Amino acid sequence: MVRRERHRIHDDVPHEAWTRLAVCSAAGLVLQLDGTLVTVALPSVARTLHVSVSSSAALLTVYFGAYALLLLPGGLLVDRFGVRRVAVVGLGLFLAGAMAGALAGGLDLLIMARLVQGAGAGLVSPAALAGAVSGFPPERRGVALGIWGASAGVANLIGPVLGGVLTYLFGWRADWWALIPVALVAACAVVIHIPVSLRDVRSGWRGAPINGVVLAASFVAAVTFAVMIGAFYLLEQYLQDSGHYTALAASAVLVLVALLVAVVAPMAGRLADARGDRLTALLGFSLAGFGLALLGTPGIPLGGAIGFLLLAPLGVGLGMLFVPTSRAGLNSAPESSHGRVSAILSLGRLLGAMIGASAAGAAISGGPSASTTHQALLVACAGCVLVGLPAARGLGTRVWSIS
Questions:
Q1: pLDDT in tens, 161-208
Q2: Which domains are present in the chain?
């Protein structure tokens, strides 16, 4: 009888909730595509506009800077005015920035366009995550977030390939033009399928969204992204500089891990719903740490079939870490503050990515030799074991049900 009741509750999700999940996942996918498309296009931007590669990197810096600065205000606006209004405004800004970037005649104008796109992304991100889980009871949000994570993995799979093809065939401006119809379709879907208010957003929006579980979840997200981005940077640099791989061949590292994340995230969501966020995150950090320990072992080849095979534990571990952080944070707060909680989680990811990239760059500042790369990967392993595992224990069990 208990088993039947549990099954009934798990199936009691309205069709509209699944539709909103699909629409909000598509809105989040726009942001994922942007990062991969623009990153691939940067060398072409530098050559065409006759600027240095370091100067073109400012296109990423200003984008993520504006993104981070708008996250917390964006989350507050989501809780105040609802998912639909904020998502549409954010996608509109993003679309305007993409169009301005495609038409920009110089680096200064392109940087300003990226600033506008980043501001739009800062509004879209908390709106999309809050809207994705709306309509799902707390015990089913892992399934929803697993699908959300899988969509991000798919975006990271097709983004580098699409960016490379567009840049090769039509030049870097094609990457910006490609973002316009994607953002436009996502905005139209939001208008059609997301109601003006998913709940009475004016009641309780002033409440503080921060509690111990939200802070722990944001910290776990930061550690996850620091490890992920740092490891990716190390492997990419080593394979291209010391392993003499082409940029396309080296990107196979990202493609393989993105594929594993896309496959594992839904399974991690079901595990989190069944056994809790803490266990799922502990398993994720354990597997990621094990994979990094293998890759960091002196004498282990980082390229070739063996190196790619050893990426599997790392990819599976990372795939298990995306769901429990978001699920724990969102379930620990009332739905009227989900916009702000989503913003806090996203801010943790951005800060972690910045720390991981900076630490990896400092670790191989003297050149990405096999020795320094192995040592840096072992440091990342220590981060999973000594920081990630204890932090994962903070993903508690406090749950707010849908009101």
A1: 788 788 888 988 999 999 999 999 999 999 999 887 654 444 444 555
A2: 17-137+157-197 (1.20.1250.20), 207-398 (1.20.1250.20)
Phi, psi of 220 (to 5 degrees): -60, -40
The torsion region of residue 166 among left (phi > 0), alpha (psi -120 to 50) and beta comes to: alpha
Instruction: Return the closest-CA partner of residue 380 out of 225, 201, 186, 263.
Output: 225
Cβ atoms of 200 and 27 within 8 Å: the answer is no
- Reported as a single tens digit per residue, the pLDDT across 210-234 is 788 899 999 999 999 899 888 887 8
DSSP code per residue over 355-399 = HHHHHHHHHTTT---HHHHHHHHHHHHHIIIIIIHHHHTT-----
pLDDT tops 50 at residue 4: no
How far is the C-alpha of 61 from the C-alpha of 44, rounded, in Å? 17
A 10 A CB-CB count for 61 gives 13
Quote the CA–CA distance of 149 and 147 in Å, as a whole number: 5
Q: Which of 209, 184, 194, 215 is nearest to 81 (CA)?
A: 194
